[in-house]
Amino acid sequence: MTELGPDTWPPAPMRTERLVLRASEARDRAAFIELFASPEVGTYIGGARPREEVDRAMPEVPGRRPGLFVIDLDGTMIGMITLDRRDAERPGHVRPEAGEAELGYLLLPEAWGRGYAVEACAAALDWFAGTLPGEPVVLTTQTANDRAMTLAAKLGFTEVERFEEYGAEQWFGVRSAAAPTA
After folding, report:
1. CA distance 35 to 48
2. Is the CA virtual torsion 56, 13, 177, 179 positive or negative?
3. What does the pLDDT look like over 20-31, one tens digit per residue?
4. Global model pTM greater than 0.90
5. SS in 3 state form for 87-114?
6. Cα separation of 154 and 149, whole Å?
7. Quick one: CA torsion of 139, 106, 22, 26, rounded to 10 degrees?
């Protein structure tokens, strides 16, 4: 994300009831590899990448960039959240100048179904709202991804439009800065 407001990156770790959102560290490398090589995780994002390819391309400290939070459970990475500016060339925008903040997230399959995604995304959205008040956040997911559609609703995203991208129907929603967190 090019503009994160007045805060320096990374912000101090954020604690939720069960999780910590923090900057990535070298110890997270294996979990990053697992995320991108997992067939389950890759189902709605274009498929898994070969583990060897991911391992070769993964830096020693992966994910060290503004807008990326590691989701940490009891000292172990279980996923990640990203807040990036949506590319103007892609379909789906709520502002004429484009460049909206877009929420993305990936969790390891063993962390699914426990409410961690809602808890972590709500904390990241709260941080974003405090850092850049009044900025909308958008989210795109395949309509076939029932879990992501449910999460979007729990986080207060409302549908703006649907379109075809990456060979599948996409749901595009927005969360106003005043939306409640889960």
Report:
1. 9
2. positive
3. 999 999 999 999
4. yes
5. CCCCCCCCCCCCCCEEEEEEECHHHCCC
6. 9
7. -140
